[in-house]
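Table 4 source record.
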Amino acid sequence: MAIRRILTCDTPADMAVLKQVSRPVEAVDDGLRALMDDMLATMYDAPGIGLAAVQIGEPVRVIVMDLAREGEEPQPRYLVNPEITWRSEEMAVYEEGCLSVPEYFDEVERPARVRLSYLDYNGKPVEEDCDGLFATCIQHEMDHLEGVLFIDHLSRLRRDRAISKVKKTVRAKAA
């Protein structure tokens, strides 16, 4: 497993990749499982709770996540070609952050519950209902597969403020 560089919204080159629509995966094979292992290691190292493949420069429809709280046993999830098949009319607001928008958080409103279908780590089909943090996280990560960042759900002023803050944060870390 290798730790990969996470693309961030502060550079035009990274944004060009992050804005790509990810392509479906043809087959779950050893190469894809190696990518998912790298993604999980990268996500844990960051640290984060979800990561889409495009965030490490691989525009394929793959997501990893782990919603276990600190001190709990890890509960990694691998989602290949995920699709939301149903969304509730009820909405929920969560404060979201993103590894591609480091150290910036803002509230986003999304459906409170969704139904999800995907292939797991071994290529087996899975369908499940999601609510709470899982529903928010999967919608956030699936936005990445469509070239959408969570800050795209914000007003232009708040989005510009987020990008400016990320640029300052990245410059400060580089200094």
